């Protein structure tokens, strides 16, 4: 199996879109990611996966904290900014919560301290213990086959 085939197969799994943020010396750093999952309810734990080449890796190691911002369908440009596909910073607004910067108007902001980490292949898996959660109503931004997408609700007749 070649890398492209594996990548295409993983693209068949539709995901939500998140931006992972952390604060270092008063500056907010972020990256778009869809490798995120819930791990445990008691204690509340989540997992993110960061490429060994990503700048965010050293930043999370240094801060010991991160936030997962689950984006709404109106926040595609925010995702593109933190994926390096845009430079329009005007569309991003942060707020502080428990000493962490989170993206305003996200469907959910999940504030974590690093509970543990594990190197797995060319990524580091960070498990975060959830300290706080902010929830809002709305529809999620989705990602499928390498493209942004929106969920549609079928009409029942």
TrEMBL record:
Keyword Oxidoreductase (UniProt): yes
Matching entries from Pfam families are given as: Flavin_Reduct
Q: Which GO terms describe its molecular function?
A: FMN binding; riboflavin reductase (NADPH) activity
* SUPFAM superfamilies reported for this sequence: FMN-binding split barrel
Could you mention a single GO BP entry for this protein?
A: pyrimidine nucleobase catabolic process
Keyword flag Oxidoreductase: yes
Keyword terms: Oxidoreductase
Name the record gives this protein: Flavin reductase
Q: Which organism was this protein described from?
A: Priestia filamentosa
Which lineage do the record's taxonomy fields give for this organism?
Bacteria, Bacillati, Bacillota, Bacilli, Bacillales
């Amino acid at each position: 199996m070649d890398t492209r085939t594996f990548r295409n197969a993983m693209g068949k799994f539709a995901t939500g879109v998140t931006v992972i943020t952390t604060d270092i010396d008063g500056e907010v750093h972020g990256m778009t990611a869809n490798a995120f999952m819930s791990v445990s309810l008691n204690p509340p734990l989540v997992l993110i996966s960061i490429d060994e080449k990503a700048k965010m890796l050293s930043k999370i190691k240094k801060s010991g904290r991160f936030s997962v911002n689950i984006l709404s369908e109106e926040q595609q440009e925010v995702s593109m900014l933190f994926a390096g596909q845009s430079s329009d910073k005007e569309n991003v607004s942060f707020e502080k919560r428990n000493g962490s910067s989170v993206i305003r108007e996200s469907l959910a902001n999940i504030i974590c301290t690093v509970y543990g980490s594990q190197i797995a292949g060319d990524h580091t898996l960070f498990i975060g213990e959830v300290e706080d959660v902010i929830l809002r109503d709305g529809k999620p931004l989705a990602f499928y086959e390498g493209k942004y997408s929106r969920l549609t609700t079928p009409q029942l007749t």
